[in-house]
Amino acid sequence: EIEPINSIDGHHTLNRVRFEQVRVPVTQRIGAEGEGWTVAKGLLNHERTGLAFLSLSQRKLRIARSALAEQPQHAAETMALRRRLARLQIEIDALATTELKVLAETAGGQPPADSASILKLKGTQLLQAITEVLIECAAYAALPYPLSEDGLPPRERPEPKYAQAEMAQYLIARSASIAGGSDEIQYGVIAKHVLKL
Question: DSSP of 139-192, one letter per residue?
Fold first, then answer.
């Protein structure tokens, strides 16, 4: 049974899927009997490696830099945003190094380690932070449903042009804290299997 889930950005990109009374022939089973969770964890680590959102974050950072270049140069807020972007660039570079390490291990024949949780957690946090900067740069133009003075939707979107698309990205980026395992689950995996706490 497939039940659509409309996300906060107003789009249908997710579904809730239920399987009832499903039987899988033994010939179609993956792994040994009783090892389903082990197989699932391996698949989740592959998924989490891809959920670092590295290329998306790099692209969003370039958009944020361009957006910031259009801000008044004298504003203290602009300088604070520039510092935030510089810190985010450093963190993205560190994330890229971690992702290359995980990918090198995978290319060497090893399955993605539990350090994939670090990629997923940090990648989610960085993407969300970058979208926040973009929304701050766009100010009121980022309102999801801006109204004109007469209360009707405006005929033209306010400048800057990127604002509406970035608001949608900002909203959907919130769901990344749940997809592929919530942030809380990632902290638990990192504590138990990476840091051995």
Answer: GGGG-SS---TTSSPPSSPPSPTTHHHHHHHHHHHGGGGTTTS-HHHHHHHIII
Cβ atoms within 10 Å, residue 46: 13
Entry pTM: 0.80
Q: Quote the crossing angle between the two packed helices 116-138 and 36-50, to the nearest 10°.
A: 40
Cα–Cα distance for residue pair 172/60, rounded to 1 Å:
14
pLDDT digits (tens, 9 = 90+) for 143-162: 765 556 665 555 666 677 78
Place of tokens 């989740």: 44
For residue 63, count other CB atoms closer than 10 A to its CB.
Answer: 18
Q: In sequence order, what are the residues at sequence separation of 6 or more whose Cβ sits closer than 8 angstroms to the Cβ of residue 31?
A: 38, 39
pLDDT in tens, 99-158: 898 888 888 888 777 888 889 999 999 999 999 999 888 877 777 655 566 655 556 666
Task: Report which DSSP code applies to 31.
Answer: S
CA 39 to chain centroid: 24
